[in-house]
Amino acid sequence: MISQAQRTEFETLFPFIKLAAVDFVDAFYAEAQYMEIPAGVSICDEGQQCSHLAMVVAGVGRVYKLSSSGREVTLYRIYGGESCVLTASCIMNHDSFPAMAITETLVRGFLIPPASVRRWFCEEPQWQKFIFGLLSHRLSNIISVVEGVAFKRIDVRLAEQFARELTRGVDIIHKTHADLAADVGSSREVVSRILRDLTHRGLIVVNRGYIEIIDKRAIVKLSQQ
User: Fold this and answer.
1) What is the pLDDT of residues 61-88, one digit of tens each?
2) What would the 3-class secondary structure string for the chain be?
């Protein structure tokens, strides 16, 4: 049973539901399931069928590709007020999941059964608009990832990661070298070398388990190259 407080939180982050038909809203809350998933839990593996569409209200999930050699490339992260476009696409097309998904923090949200995702797409314009919005938003994200891996220097890609955190008011980043390597599609050894260079230039300070951004202006300038 979804509580009124959970409904209110959801509607703040997913305002489309307040514009939807009453019958759809009633069906949505009757068929959706509230969930809490701890950090570090695998949500879906490559090749699996998607059991639900998760609509996140709090926490962070990460979707990534894993090569045969074990190298990771982060495709995108899912924050509160977002959902997974690859999951939606797989559900709509009855396909298997083409990547990996994991919780980076405790994640709270609603789980939508696949049959409901497909039925509502045909019946409710606001739900259809939400699904199309996922496609538009995430497609641009994935294109940016491809462009970065193919055309940008690793120091610039790292600076982009740091600059995104700065826009969120975060200047201490709790990530390992391996985490950052996955974010920029490189190896841990290469990322470690770039971090040492940025440290020597006075842009950051590297500590065990976290990185502090010292020269914010220089990081932003580097990210724009």
Assistant:
1) 999 988 777 778 888 899 999 999 999 9
2) CCCHHHHHHHHHHCHHHHHCCHHHHHHHHHHCEEEEECCCCEEECCCCECCCEEEEEECCEEEEEECCCCCEEEEEEECCCEECHHHHHHHHHCCECCCEEEECCCEEEEEECHHHHHHHHHHCHHHHHHHHHHHHHHHHHHHHHHHHHHHCCHHHHHHHHHHHHHHCCCCEECCCHHHHHHHHCCCHHHHHHHHHHHHHCCCEEEECCEEEECCHHHHHHHHCC
